[in-house]
Design goal:
The complex is a heterodimer. In chain A, strand 5, helix 5 and strand 6 form a beta-alpha-beta unit. Chain A folds into 2 domains: about 5-30 and about 300-409, Alpha-Beta Complex (Aspartate Aminotransferase, domain 1), CATH 3.90.1150; about 40-295, Type I PLP-dependent aspartate aminotransferase-like (Major domain) (Aspartate Aminotransferase, domain 2, 3-Layer(aba) Sandwich). Chain A contains 15 helices and 17 strands. Chain A is α/β, with parallel strands linked by helices. Chain A is globular and about 70 Å long. In chain A, helix 12 runs parallel beside helix 15. Chain A has helices at about 5-10, 35-50, 60-80, 95-110, 130-135, 155-160, 185-195, 205-210, 215, 240-245, 280-300, 300-320, 345-355, 370-375, 390-409; strands at about 20, 20-25, 25, 90, 115-120, 140-145, 165-175, 200, 220-225, 235-240, 260, 265-270, 325, 335-340, 360, 360-365, 380-385. By secondary structure, chain B is of the alpha+beta class. A 4-stranded mixed sheet of chain B has the order 3-2-1-4. The longest helix of chain B is centred in the middle third of the chain and has 17 residues, at about 85-100. Classes of the chains: A alpha/beta, B alpha+beta. The interface of A and B includes residues 347, 356, 400 and 408 of A.
């Protein structure tokens, strides 16, 4: 299937609507992406015809729902080239996935005296859980690798912070939600493993923009979320090697995560059920499955190529705008652009763009330390692309920014 | 493209946003308070000098913020100068009603001139995500008058 952006846009009902009388130009997919009809309909079909609780009832509907839920797990496994569907744990979102690792592996496996290494460009979701772990008084240190002025990960600093062999876990973004920077994941895996550390990637942005392959990457943990991947909210994924899952104590206790319970003792269910206490996001899993089928039919390489064209186009158009300062100029980057404009505060700018029908995010995008690093505590405006974004929309954004600057001048 | 935004960004707001009045630190302030809007990173520090009778002799501020929050703080320092603490609190209540609803039917005559000066900010009520930008300075004023050190518009 060739990449036909007009046809793709026709799949997204919300893109047909007008905002304040103007066609919607949705440039906030990095926060949450819009949903294609295929996802919406799959979830409706599930609730209308195939819904019951999973893993419990010996009746037709429960078996059908269980089959659909486990089929979603298998679809995720294929999508990320996992070695085994059991490596896929369903969570609520990326934040929940990372917190699961911090709570379970961080408290059960990581030892006092060991350190966690993150970077300055982490989303709070991959920073705060580790700060909480550090602050518990278990003797876990938190190290922070620097970001260069170009907005790339400072690999020399990463290497320096790994040399003493104390780092037990490297937890790093695969693609910055502010700078658009794609980190050199394969190289980071080699560096971490050579230093005796495990490695977790926050793939919330990366998994949406390019093909990912767990077997080729060789990481230990990988987290991403459904709602940025054109799927529903309420479902995320933690990919974790089975050997790690075996060693990890459960994070939450409840139903569906046990194999035996008496009043005196409990035996845990095998992975990944051990980490999925309670009724899971069943309808959401079905929706995520549909989203994966949707992007897979288009092809992640085709989506990546489309976004590369858009990124090149946006770089040209945005750099033409007087007074616009882009945050980060990484060589390898995806369709996320944070910038400030000399005459206008980010929030004023977002209000103006909204009047033109353009949805962008203003603020610090859950990455306050990164904004401090670049001296833009007041925040930036962020435009982020999806597979439905067009060059025409980028042009319209550039035109609106030029007019907005004149408005405040 | 943005003509219909002139209600929100009236000339007086753009002017106070670009060139805020009383934008300085008062080294010998009797009261100071810091205001934060954690959602957007707006931050301001308010300084008050009080007269012997407790009224506001001088008001000034520093900080960073969008045009709305800067203009609101600037206009506030102008309107509360010379007011008693009770009058300043009353203005604060009335202004917040204006920012949230666009009018203040219960405002009465007592501070009508001051409210007239603040009227250009009433357009913010149509932008729910921006109301807090306009009210941050006033939350901070209440905190300073009450002797608190910090205010948040969250």
């Amino acid at each position: 299937m060739s990449f036909d952006v007009a046809r793709i846009r026709a799949d997204f009902p919300i893109l047909q609507r007008k905002i304040r009388g103007k066609p919607l130009v949705f440039l906030d997919s990095g926060a949450s992406a819009q949903k294609p009809r295929q996802v919406i309909e799959a979830m409706v079909r599930c609730m209308e015809a195939r819904y019951a609780n999973v893993h419990r009832g010996a009746y037709f509907l429960s078996e059908a729902a269980t089959e659909a839920y486990e089929a979603a797990r298998a679809a995720v496994a294929r999508f990320i080239h996992a070695g085994d569907p059991r490596e896929v744990i369903f969570t609520g979102n990326s934040t929940a996935a990372i917190n699961l690792v911090a709570h379970s592996w961080g408290r059960g496996v990581l030892q006092p005296g060991q350190a966690v290494l993150v970077s300055e460009m982490e989303h709070h979701a991959n920073l705060v859980p580790w700060q909480m772990l550090r602050d518990e008084g278990r003797g876990i240190e938190l190290r922070v690798a620097r970001v260069t002025d170009a907005g790339e990960l400072d690999l020399e600093d990463v290497a320096a912070k790994l040399t003493d062999g104390k780092v037990g876990l490297v937890a790093i973004t695969h693609m910055s939600n502010v700078l658009g920077t794609v980190t050199p994941a394969e190289r980071l895996v080699r560096m971490a493993h050579a230093a005796g550390a495990k490695i977790l990637f926050d793939g919330s942005q990366a998994a949406v923009h390019r093909p990912i392959d767990m077997q080729a990457l060789g990481a230990d943990f990988y987290a991403f979320t459904g709602h940025k991947l054109y799927g529903p909210t309420g479902i995320g994924v933690l990919w974790a090697r089975l050997e790690h899952q075996e060693r990890m104590p459960p994070f939450m206790g409840g139903g569906d995560m046990i194999s035996l319970v008496t009043l005196d003792r409990v035996e845990w269910a095998p992975p990944p059920a051990k980490f999925e206490a309670g009724t899971p996001p069943i309808v959401e899993a079905v929706g995520l499955h549909a989203a994966i089928d949707y992007v897979s039919a288009i092809g992640m390489p085709a989506i990546e190529a489309h976004e590369r064209r858009l990124v090149d186009h946006a770089m040209r158009r945005l750099s033409d705008i007087e007074g616009l300062a882009l945050l980060g100029h990484a060589q390898d980057r995806g369709g996320v652009f944070a910038f400030s404009l000399d005459k206008a505060h980010a929030h004023d700018l977002a209000t103006l763009l909204d009047r033109a029908g353009i949805a962008v995010r203003a603020g610090r995008h859950c990455a306050e330390p990164l904004h401090a690093r670049f001296g833009v505590e007041a925040g930036t405006v962020r435009a982020s692309f999806g597979l439905y974004t067009t060059e025409g929309e980028v042009d319209y954004l550039a035109e609106a920014l030029t007019k907005a600057r004149a408005f405040f001048a | 493209m943005f003509d219909d935004l002139r209600d929100l960004y009236q000339e007086v707001i753009l002017d106070h946003g670009r060139r805020p009045r009383n934008f300085r630190r008062l080294e010998d302030a009797d009261r100071t308070a810091r205001g934060d809007n954690p959602m957007c990173g707006d931050r301001l520090e308010l300084f008050l000098k009080l007269a012997p009778d407790g009224s506001i002799a001088e008001a000034a501020f520093q900080g960073r913020g969008c045009a709305i929050s800067t203009a609101s703080a600037s206009l506030m320092t102008e309107t509360v100068t010379g007011k008693s603490a009770a009058q300043a609190h009353a203005l604060s209540d009335q202004f917040r009603a204006l920012a949230m609803t666009g009018s203040c039917p219960d405002c009465g005559e007592a501070l009508s001139e001051e409210m007239e000066r603040l009227q250009p900010l009433s357009g913010v009520h149509e932008f729910p995500s921006r109301v807090k930008c306009a009210t941050l300075a006033w939350h901070t004023l209440n905190a300073a008058l009450d002797g608190a050190k910090e205010a948040s518009s969250e």
